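By way of example, what follows is a protein record of this kind.
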Amino acid sequence: MANVQEGPVTKTDVVRAMWRHIITLQWSWNYERMQALGWLWSMLPILTKVYKDPEHLKAAMRRNINFFNTNPQVGSPAIFGAAVAMEQQENPDVADSIKVGLMGPFAGIGDSVQAILFRPILAVFAAALAMNGSMGGPLLFVAAGIFWIALMPWQFWLGYNQGTNLVQEVAGGGRIQRLTEGATIMGLVVIGGFVPSIMAGLTTPLKFARTLTVQGKATEKVVELQGILDQILPYMIPLLMVGFAFWLIKSRKMSPVKILLILTVLSFITAALHIL
């Protein structure tokens, strides 16, 4: 925890604002301004101490209820911490610039690390545990929630200490950018490794019978297509299915829900025809 700047705002005020932001930011989410009302509610302990004049306080509240939306677990506490530091220094223009300038980059970073990489990897682990009859699957998701909450105060104080330097850190491709790239690489490796283990049961029962003549006798030999595919490339069918889903996402720009529906229909058809 950092030392709070001197002035009318006390450490208790800063801590109260931090926990309001962590706990209640999403409570009043709406389609017009998204997280703006939660941001204002979180900032009120600071604004009421900095702006004693009622008219100045109203103006500050109007500023802080402007549109805001970013990843609530990754990035938002850091942005809020930097904005709190600027409001304490009575630099409202800088506080607003930090808020507007960083919510987009941190939304991309947070969604990439948490929603696109972390959650699917966690879901794969949880599914594997559940398939083996373990209670570890749901407990894993509870532990993940606690993990993200534990990171949020650290992010807040990081932003509070960095202030305007946080903008340079994000825009300059510093540690945050390297962390994102490393997490992306790790996530791709883990997901790739789970394709054969989770989808190992996706095989084909197709067989072909051939009649051969051995020592003057006709002998029927059954050739299993799955065995031939395994000799060419192990787990070829699971890889093809993953590649098909990836193609639908990248080339056809389909949503995950539509892709799941397509794969579900495809699975029923191929199972009915005894292809997969």
Remarks:
- The first helix runs from residue 11 to 24.
- The CA atoms of residues 127 and 137 lie 6 Å apart.
